[in-house]
Amino acid sequence: MISRLLILLYAIVSYVIFTVSFLYALGFVGNYVVPKSIDMSIDKSIDVGSPTDLSVAVVVNLLLMSLFAIQHSVMARPAFKRWSAKFLPLACQRSTYVLLSSLVLLLLFWQWRPIPTPIWQASGTVAWLLIGVHWLGWLIAFASTHMIDHFDLFGLRQAFVAFRGSEIPGQSFRTPLLYKIVRHPIMLGFLLAFWATPEMTAGHLLFALANTAYILIALQFEERDLIAEFGMTYQQYRHRVPMLVPRLFTRRPADERQPPRSAGAPR
Ligand SMILES: C[S@@+](CC[C@H](N)C(=O)[O-])C[C@H]1O[C@@H](n2cnc3c(N)ncnc32)[C@H](O)[C@@H]1O
């Protein structure tokens, strides 16, 4: 009973730390409210006055993003989960993943080196449109976690189920709402939030480019695991629903289009 209660507390603490890191991410990427953001260091100084400072900033930022990518992707793989199950109860596996991901993110926010060289600057209606798309991206990402199962994704459900003494059910496959339009709405939301900004700087561009590359690679691994888990069901879903760009903007695969009718074909 005590160990189940401790696991539940651990899951709640991990979830609270995730919430802090997510809220900080909103301020960090958008340069709102937080003391240190993607374009502004705490003392508001420009860190990249010389070419050496610039190289250091690029290397440090790439290392921080690589650390997140490695931790986030390695710990998500079934082989890692099987290995960690030898010493980590199933009920706190997901919370541990959430906790470490959040801590690495907070480290990134803390150690990030701003590179404020302007790349583009929009004003007027275009600027407002970009701000709108930026917030729509965060909204899509957050809402989509609830469409598949927010509390399962962040480890709370597993801890609650174990606390009640029930068996933790396996992952279920869901395709509600936005999952009918694209296969990865959470990632689509992040991409919109990262790219849509009225003031793009070199540091922000590095962040958006590196994270886009990471998302495109990570999704290959995620889909490989989903195919291994759900087989034909996921294969068919993959065939039916585009990855990130809604069908409105893309062509259907050739074999899904109606063949042209021949002149004498019956109607
Ligand atoms: C951070 S979420 C991202 C989900 C998805 N890639 C997206 O961008 O919306 C990753 C977890 O979601 C799970 N997942 C992805 N698609 C799913 C679906 N359609 N139904 C249930 N779980 C899904 C993956 O197995 C993985 O554990």
Describe this structure in words.
It holds the Pfam family NnrU. By secondary structure, this protein is mainly α. The chain has one domain. Strands 1-2 form a two-stranded antiparallel ribbon. The longest helix is centred in the first third of the chain and has 29 residues. It binds S-adenosylmethionine. The site of S-adenosylmethionine has 13 residues, from helix 5, helix 8 and helix 9.
Record the SSE blueprint.
Blueprint: H1 2-30, H2 51-74, H3 78-84, H4 93-111, E1 118-121, H5 124-148, H6 150-153, H7 156-163, H8 185-195, E2 199-201, H9 202-230, H10 232-240
Antiparallel strand pairs: 1-2
Helix pairs in contact: 1-4, 1-7, 2-4, 2-9, 5-8, 8-9, 9-10
The chain binds S-adenosylmethionine (SAM).
